[in-house]
Amino acid sequence: MSVRVTFEPEGKAAFVLPGSLVLEAAARAGIIVDTPCGGRGTCGKCRVIVRDGCSPLNDTERERLTEAEIAEGFRLACQAKVESDTIVTVPDTSRFFEQRILTAGEGARICVNPAVRKRLIEAPEPTLDDQRADTDRVLDALGGDALTIDLEAARQLPTALRADGCRLTAVTHGDNIIAFEPADTTDHCFGVAFDVGTTTVVGSLLDLSTGHEMAVASRTNPQVSWGDDVIARISHAGSDGGLGELQASVVGCVNEILDELVAHAGLTREAIYEITCVGNTTMHHLLLGLDPSHVAVIPFPPVVRRGVVLPAADVGIAIHPRGRLYTMPNIAGYVGGDTVGVILASNFAERDEPTLAVDIGTNGEMVLGTRERLVSCSTAAGPAFEGARIQFGMRAAEGAIEQVRFGEDVAVSVIGDAPARGLCGSALVDTTAGLLRAGLLEPTGRLVGPSEVPEGVPERLARRVVDVEGGNAFVLAHAEETSLDGPVLLTQRDIRQVQLAKGAVRAGIEVLKAELGVGDDDIAAVLLAGGFGNFIRRRNALRIGLLPPIEHSRIHFVGNAAAAGAKMVLACTDYRERAEAISREAEYLELGARPDFQMHFAEAMMFPEDE
Amino acid sequence: MSVRVTFEPEGKAAFVLPGSLVLEAAARAGIIVDTPCGGRGTCGKCRVIVRDGCSPLNDTERERLTEAEIAEGFRLACQAKVESDTIVTVPDTSRFFEQRILTAGEGARICVNPAVRKRLIEAPEPTLDDQRADTDRVLDALGGDALTIDLEAARQLPTALRADGCRLTAVTHGDNIIAFEPADTTDHCFGVAFDVGTTTVVGSLLDLSTGHEMAVASRTNPQVSWGDDVIARISHAGSDGGLGELQASVVGCVNEILDELVAHAGLTREAIYEITCVGNTTMHHLLLGLDPSHVAVIPFPPVVRRGVVLPAADVGIAIHPRGRLYTMPNIAGYVGGDTVGVILASNFAERDEPTLAVDIGTNGEMVLGTRERLVSCSTAAGPAFEGARIQFGMRAAEGAIEQVRFGEDVAVSVIGDAPARGLCGSALVDTTAGLLRAGLLEPTGRLVGPSEVPEGVPERLARRVVDVEGGNAFVLAHAEETSLDGPVLLTQRDIRQVQLAKGAVRAGIEVLKAELGVGDDDIAAVLLAGGFGNFIRRRNALRIGLLPPIEHSRIHFVGNAAAAGAKMVLACTDYRERAEAISREAEYLELGARPDFQMHFAEAMMFPEDE
User: Which residues of chain A have a Cβ shorter than 8 Å from any chain B Cβ?
Assistant: First the structure.
């Protein structure tokens, strides 16, 4: 039922329903196409090359593209719809700014200024007239009186210095020389950026001399065996030996990803001199072996807020023995370095008009503001959107219905094109919005029963409304379409979970707006980040009231912005200063302590009357 | 034959021959009395309290001391001679400046500004209105945005912070917080200063809140089992696994001394947050596990010159797990941190007139200059003065003749008042000088034979001149006075070794003088430092030509100035800056590369014709 769209040059693929925009398919594949106009077709920025398998050129595209471009196969990603399996090439110039910064060859816009640098030393050889110490010889050659040398590097120096006639390479991290390598290895410098999610850990190998991404690998965070959410992890961390287990578990996962990345690139682990990590505050604490227990107890203080630089070996991460680890600073106990990464990648530092960033993962974090002032908050909204507490809920894995389109019947797209075994968050939003539009779900959240189906509802749709033990339900996949013993349903109880989850996110947004005195019309842009944010249909998110009623075209996908932030601070230390400023200056609103949150929450539980 | 002199308040004792100055006995006990006038009795600075057992008050003392002082038992250490067992109290005000700095209660002159500090934090407890991270809470309380926190300290923080209601103690090292301790432990801060000698390792435990020395302990450097001198050690370091063996060996010794010190003071090793080490460049390298092999090969470059700060645990030293080690900077491959310590403790930074410091240990290091310019050099002079290559030579241990006085016969003082089994360096100088004065040794270094004894030599002296296999010799202890099967002799061959050793030191001094264009009369002070330097009789050192013909009163003992330097940099980081400046600015003259050294050496082999 789905079609395969492969994106070049990465070779990443996504399965989507026929009729989906190329733009959405790209987001699904983790490729964020730049859409300054919000996909209205007015800016012409989202040009991609498609050979066939798409809808015919429309008038908007004819207006925005030159004849030469059309001849080359250019299309607008916000206009072209996928019809069958196809291959799409996304030029660097069409990519979202902060992703492009790391991958493009445009020159001026690439910021490559990593903390780890390699510098060639060509020093004179020792003589009786020049008896300088080996370390002075290299420090003088580097002109670096402010540099210090790690003891283990100093131990290597006599040999490295004499291997090639006082020609050698110093590896520096900030003001520290952390290693020496014989001869000239300056074009061989690598780092890995990690996004340590509650559910998934992703690593990206970067060439630190160019900023280019060489490989990406991911794994399920093995801590899930101690629970799906941060509260379960914190609870286990408080048990005897639990903190050590959780730390060893995630570090093992990081090391496996490192192995995969270096194998893919034909490197060794010792070639990696730095890694950066973003994650929520609990993931951050567990990675560093910091006790997160107070994050779970009022008033929820984290142990560490600021960014941390330390030898990666100190936490068991096996890169070069003296390689370093930088962890993104946090903002508060429930707004972590992942949100700082989102703020960084979303370029709030240059936003003059109020912008809202929403990152829905296992938790939901929201940030509203401008370069002048940022307010943030967090809700435990995520679990429902990640499949938790939904009867047939599951993560976005093979067999998950991930897209649902309503018409005469429902059309569903299943990940891996397999028989359905459940539904993930984006399908949950699609279905809820579809049911509202079809009149099968009331604004109060009540699902109609088989006998209450309004007139005019197509028959095949109406037949999906069923009455099961415990209440009304809607059939997303009939028993014969699933790998289960029965159908995949969305139940009344599930709808209540959706109401709670979307209500919490929306109420958080309302509190942020109230704090800044900002109305819906003042919000220049809504940035949807994170695993879930990338896959929801904007129109459907608006329909269920997850987002305030903001013009569709002002809603943008920014991909895994947290991971993009990790790559940015890896490639360029300038971003670390910005991250520290964000961490220091962004305000955190404790929703539980605000009476207005309860009021907004009660209101936001309802679904909007109409679009 | 010797008498015991006990010095208070330390309780340290020395055995000396009757008739020795209290000043000399004090030096022997490692207590350096201040003698700005060089012991001429003109300054009255060296006042000590002696109850009895000394020569009667002389006119000089009557002139310098008030009647009240005389009534209290005050004497001048440079005038009073020991006659029998006695107890001497040395007031702080009479001590050598740089020793006094660490032990006195005088206020203004004490520099206590250690790298390790304890600071009390009294922070507000977390609330919903104050959700700061634990680390921010303590950093804000310390007003320290520049401070960083060691990961392991951050791991301790949640517990330490809550143990006593946000009242806790931060242990800082420079800008690093290395530990937290619950409640207020600010009056409990300790460090140990080590002098890591080729032969002996000495540790001094200091209370870092006052600068007071609490205990001293020493051990033979166990590396002696791989050879007496640095060349033998370097050679072993080059063998398979040798460097690791040597490092583990000296670190084991340091740890044993630490155990003894903390046991003596009723502390634990974890209470020690910093140690400092001085040592020659080879000892420094072996302690840090740096390959010293190039120090032994022309052009002799060390690996590291500058001072190094690192976690003590990185080299296996077992103080607090995050305690630090500071190693004194070196000057060159053969002028190490011990010499920097001597320069520091000898206060060259305030010397306007040319001063010569001579530190004779296993090696001999010499420094000449002023605050403006310092030149240094090194010779392998030491072994003879430490007993090596002398037939009955031995270190200054029990059974060693350590003082020899010539009269109608020779009177010897044996360490431990035991039967003699050899002689140490100070006795070697005494004997050589005595033989020259008695006419039994010619300026060329030829010992007379039994048939050549000049007229007028007392009979008992003359009988000590003997003819043994291999040449003439002089009997220092007759067979019946020794624990050996025969007598303790000084042989013609031994005299040749003395000539080589003293010739090398003296030639080094002459090269330094020539380099600076300084004559003997320009040298305002000669400072004798180190184990050997403290025990030689100045007049005898002058007689054999070890030192240039400089007025006796300008020669001062400065004790174990290298160890004093280690204590200074432990107690006060201001001295570390001064040490780094000395290391950077002091010039090193490679004697082997200078033709004038050979010329001076040939000349300095001879003994002076007369006093």
Answer: 126-128, 130-137, 149, 151, 154-155, 157-159, 288-291, 293-294, 298-306, 308, 310, 314-315, 330, 332-333, 588, 590, 593
**CA-angle at B496, arms to B493 and B497, nearest 5°:** 95
What distances in angstroms separate CA A32 from CA A355, A367, A385, B133, one per listed residue? 18, 20, 21, 34
Residues of A in contact with B288 (CB under 8 A): 151, 154-155
- Cα dihedral A225, A227, A228, A234 sign: negative
State how far the Cα of A341 lies from the Cα of A566, in Å rounded to an integer: 6
Closest approach of chain B CAs to the CA of A427, in angstroms?
37
Q: To 10 degrees, the CA torsion angle through B391, B393, B394, B398?
A: 100
Pick the residue from chain A with its C-alpha nearest to B329.
A133
Q: Where is A411: in which H helix or E strand?
A: strand A410-414
List of long-range contacts for B367-371, beta carbons under 8 Å, 24+ apart: B367/B335, B367/B339, B367/B342, B367/B343, B367/B512, B367/B586, B368/B509, B368/B512, B368/B513, B368/B515, B368/B516, B368/B518, B368/B523, B369/B516, B369/B586
- The string of DSSP letters for A346-375 reads TTGGG--S-EEEEEESSSEEEEEE-SS-EE
Give residue B100's pLDDT: 42
- Taking contacts as CB-CB distances below 8 angstroms, the residues of chain B near A155 are 288-291, 303
Tally Cβ neighbours within 10 Å of residue B362: 26
In terms of Cα–Cα distance, which of B40, B33, B18 is closest to B88? B33
Q: Number of A:B CB contacts under 8 A? A: 120
Residue A545 pLDDT: 96
Residue A433 has pLDDT above 90, yes or no: yes
Backbone φ and ψ of A260, nearest 5°: -65, -40
Hey, are the CB atoms on A135 and B291 less than 8 Å from each other? no
What DSSP letter does each residue of B124-179 carry, written as one string?
Answer: PPPBTTB---HHHHHHHHHT-TT-EE-HHHHHHHHHHHHHTTSEEEEEEETTEEEE
| Interface of chain B toward chain A, CB-CB under 8 angstroms | 126-128, 130-137, 149, 151, 154-155, 157-159, 288-291, 293-294, 298-306, 308, 310, 314-315, 330, 332-333, 588, 590, 593
Pairing status of strand B176-182 against strand B190-196: unpaired
Q: Indicate if the alpha-carbon torsion angle A275, A278, A281, A286 is positive or negative.
A: negative
CB B409 within 8 A of CB B476: no
* Contact (Cβ atoms closer than 8 angstroms) between residue A473 and residue A466: yes
Instruction: Supply angle C-alpha B19, B25, B28, rounded to 5.
Output: 140
Cα separation, B309 vs A351, in Å, equals: 44
Residue where the block lists tokens 């300088």: A132
B105 has pLDDT over 70: no
- Render pLDDT for A148-186 as a digit per residue (tens, 0 to 9): 999 999 999 999 999 999 999 999 999 999 999 999 999
pLDDT, tens digit, for every residue of B202-245?
A: 999 999 988 888 999 999 999 999 988 899 999 999 999 999 99
CA distance linking residue A179 with residue A159, whole number of Å: 12
Q: Helix (H, G, I), strand (E, B), or coil: what is residue B354?
A: coil
A60 near A44, Cβ under 8 Å? no
Q: Closest Cα to residue B376, out of B429, B337, B425, B350?
A: B337
CA dist A448 and A436 (Å) reads 10
Using an 8 Å Cβ cutoff, are B569 and B579 in contact? yes
Q: Find the mean pLDDT for residues B445-454.
A: 95
Cβ–Cβ gap A333/B303 under 8 Å? no
For residue B534, is pLDDT > 50?
A: yes
- The residue with tokens 């070697």 is B428
In this prediction the ipTM stands at 0.86
**Which of A132, A134, A138 has the highest number of chain B CBs within 10 A, making it the mutation to test binding with B?**
A134
Which residue in A has a C-alpha nearest to residue B285's C-alpha? A155
- Strand-pair partners of A34: none
